[in-house]
Design brief:
- This protein has six helices and six strands, in the order E-H-E-E-E-H-E-E-H-H-H-H.
- It has helices at 19-33, 80-86, 119-125, 132-143, 149-159, 165-195, and strands at 6-14, 37-44, 52-60, 74-77, 95-99, 113-117.
- Strand 4, helix 2 (80-86) and strand 5 form a beta-alpha-beta unit.
- It is globular and about 50 Å long.
Amino acid sequence: MTFDCEKHILITGFGGQGIIMAGDILGKAATIYDGKNATMTQNYGPEARGGSCASQVIISTEDILFPSVYEPQVLVCMSQEGYTKNIKSLKKNGTFIWDEDLVKAKKHDPSWKTYHIPATRFAEELGNTMMANIVMLGFVAAVEDLVQIDALREAVLDSVPANTKENNAKAFDRGREYGEAILKGRAKQEKSRDRA
């Protein structure tokens, strides 16, 4: 995978899922640990917890002239409302990633790369649904070339309370491993198709 000079990412969900924190960590990974430029803006509904919210991140190897994301190249949805509100904004040839237990995705543009993960379920299995955002970041790191995986993992560990670092590292690795397994499976399918 190669990094285009600028990537626009939109992470959506509801208050309490750590959507803003996920955007913040992604931006931190890009700037502090991966030598790129990044901006992060956020928006959320009037209700803090449970209301719709989004984190807009731009990562670039060049200067960023405008910080808002209107047509994301990568859309991550962790709520049905976030999906409904934002799916039409995803660019052609973009990447659509969703939490399969929280989002029922309909038929979509065939030019998109699509991935889904039971991020909240994995977080629950690890003992805390609040880590679903970290599971999702690990998954995003594996399937989409935004920042180096080690840079994102480091930014996660630098952003969470000390007593939760071990569990958050497990959550990140769980998402990353799942993403890597999906990519391996797809590569095998393509090889089989080429042979046929």
